[in-house]
Amino acid sequence: MAPPYTYWSYLRERWPKDKGLRIDHLLLSPGLADVLVDAGVDRWVRGHGASDHAPAWILLDP
Fold it and tell me: Any idea what DSSP says for residue 53?
């Protein structure tokens, strides 16, 4: 499965065709990588006609 996109250009119907780019990344140190539980992109925030980005997030186990 390809990583979820975080950016879609307004040109050439990129959002409806789901032809985006992954340009937003979250980096972890090796120590924090051990407590990584989940990660994702909230595509619903982007919506149609809104920002060209969607927020990326991570969940860490304290």
Answer: B
What is the pTM (predicted TM-score) of this model?
A: 0.74
Structure-token match 């060209």, residue found: 52
pLDDT (tens digit per residue) in 19-29:
899 888 889 99
pLDDT at 4: 82
Domain of residue 18 covers 11-60
Domain count, the chain: 1
User: Do 37 and 59 meet the contact criterion of CB atoms below 8 Å apart?
Assistant: yes
Residue 51: name the closest of 59, 60, 42 by CA: 42
Q: Is residue 19 part of a domain?
A: yes
